Known about the structure:
Elements: E1 5-10, H1 18-31, E2 36-41, H2 43-50, H3 57-71, E3 78-82, H4 88-97, H5 102-106, H6 109-117, H7 126-129, H8 131-140, E4 146-149, H9 154-171, E5 179-182, H10 210-218, H11 239-247, H12 250-261, H13 267-294, H14 296-325
Parallel strand pairs: 1-2, 2-3, 4-5
Helix pairs in contact: 3-13, 4-8, 4-14, 8-9, 10-13, 11-13
Amino acid sequence: xxxxxxxxxxxxxxxxxxxxxxxxxxxxxxxxxxxxxxxxxxxxxxxxxxxxxxxxxxxxxxxxxxxxxxxxxxxxxxxxxxxxxxxxxxxxxxxxxxxxxxxxxxxxxxxxxxxxxxxxxxxxxxxxxxxxxxxxxxxxxxxxxxxxxxxxxxxxxxxxxxxxxxxxxxxxxxxxxxxxxxxxxxxxxxxxxxxxxxxxxxxxxxxxxxxxxxxxxxxxxxxxxxxxxxxxxxxxxxxxxxxxxxxxxxxxxxxxxxxxxxxxxxxxxxxxxxxxxxxxxxxxxxxxxxxxxxxxxxxxxxxxxxxxxxxxxxxxxxxxxxxxxxxxx
Length: 329
């Protein structure tokens, strides 16, 4: 490979929102200029928490791919595919499970965190416990060098490195240990000040119409200490200002910060300005979305081609794995 390889995936669990856009997709779009990129719909991973709601997965994959293509992920520059279409992921996951100590999986921070957060679901399954192992298979089957993650996901990549080193020690060097590619991204909260999430019903979605965006921005929480219009505000604790820093010009950000602190602008006026800036930012994305919605065959073609390319790489890797393990009989 002339370029280092990057791999990342996203669970198809519903419409994508602005947190997904700034937290992953904008970064992926930039990475595909300098890396050999593989991006996949992690539908098997979705089953770890959505196993009793599988009817949404197929449509979610389609919606997600339309968003990916609309924001600028290119099938010419990246391999875009669906995890479950590449059965070799499951085979490698099985083989890795034979050499991975149970304690390694139990100590992953998100294991207990999600059990505490998702109390309305029974997560006492091997699939949930073992999803970091499947994640490792996803990464190393393409011999990815880098995995773009936020700081909270570094333990997952470190586990993948440990498993890779263990495999290479037992069977010989097959896989390069993947490294985290840390990305600092703006943190956008939902309109109610909590983490932006479909389950909280507080998200602004990439596919939202201009009027939906205006309505949602109008409901956004602002500085809780600013009660009256003439009270000075504090942009540092205002979620609206955090969105300005992403979707408004540098001059606007500077002016809003000054005007807010001296009460020269009210929250209602500020939100209206922000809403129009978000609408303008998403306008070219919405135009591309309309094109894909009107021609669904294009999305199918992209996925078919991407799955063929991914399968060819995964198949070659598994031939090496079976040979190294002496089970290629």
